[in-house]
From TrEMBL:
Pfam families: HSCB_C. It comes from the Bacteria. Belongs to the HscB family. Keywords: Chaperone. It comes from Candidatus Lambdaproteobacteria bacterium RIFOXYD2_FULL_56_26. One of its GO terms (biological process) is [2Fe-2S] cluster assembly. This is Co-chaperone HscB C-terminal oligomerisation domain-containing protein. Residues 127-206 form the Co-chaperone HscB C-terminal oligomerisation domain. GO terms for cellular component: iron-sulfur cluster transfer complex.
Length: 214
């Protein structure tokens, strides 16, 4: 099954009420009406962002802030019941979508579920060699916590591994976007996501240690 590498942003859809061109998928600036979600909408399109593993955080942040101001339930308290309900639903969706997109592991799982829904989005167990590597990093964090060794080299090593892994995943996701009928590639992505989950846990622990040791 082939998929186009050019993603639909939905920014040029028309308002469901006044037919004006939409700047954002969830809200019309012209008539200030909230929009019903369409079949092709997802966490990426509501922010006007292409379906890619590598995201532009400033773009998502700016869209989030602008939409949150327009959609907040307090601004629609006197609107019709349907409009009030949409305001609550869309606000919750915005928060949920931003949380997922700003976490690379959750973003990868979600994107995989969009691109290859029949093959599953669950992360796979990393190979033993990677598990040994993460165990060694865990031991290094233990030593840093005990004051036996400095934290910075281990923290840098974790960040470097994450950076390299995310670059590899981005390339794999781009290939999957062009052709989703690639079970072996999906499996490789699932393994990569499994690795990423381990690294993010290590990164979180290192950040907590840095905070406690400062």
């Amino acid at each position: 099954m082939k998929r186009s590498g050019h993603n639909q942003h939905h920014n040029h859809d028309r308002c469901q009420s006044c037919a004006a061109e939409l700047k954002h998928r969830l809200y019309c600036d012209s008539c200030e009406k909230l929009q019903q979600l369409g079949k092709g909408d997802d966490y990426f399109t509501i922010f006007g962002h292409p379906r890619r593993f590598a995201i532009e955080e400033p773009v998502v942040d700016a869209a989030f802030d602008e939409l949150l101001l327009a959609l907040h339930p307090d601004l629609h308290a006197t609107a019709e019941p349907q409009e009030q309900a949409l305001s609550v639903e869309h606000t919750a969706l915005l928060v949920e979508a931003k949380h997922a997109l700003f976490n690379p592991y959750l973003r990868g799982k979600y994107l995989l579920s969009l691109l290859a829904p029949d093959l599953g989005s669950a992360a796979a167990k990393p190979p033993q060699s990677f598990l040994v590597q993460t165990f060694e990093l865990q031991e290094a964090l233990d030593q840093a916590e005990a004051g036996a060794t400095p934290l910075e080299p281990t923290q840098t090593a974790i960040l470097d591994l994450q950076k390299d892994l995310e670059a590899e995943l981005n390339e794999q996701f781009d290939r999957l976007t062009e052709d989703a009928d690639q079970p072996e590639l999906v499996r490789s992505i699932q393994v990569g996501l499994g690795k990423l989950k381990f690294l993010l846990n290590l990164k979180e622990r290192a950040q907590e240690l840095a905070k406690n040791l400062s």
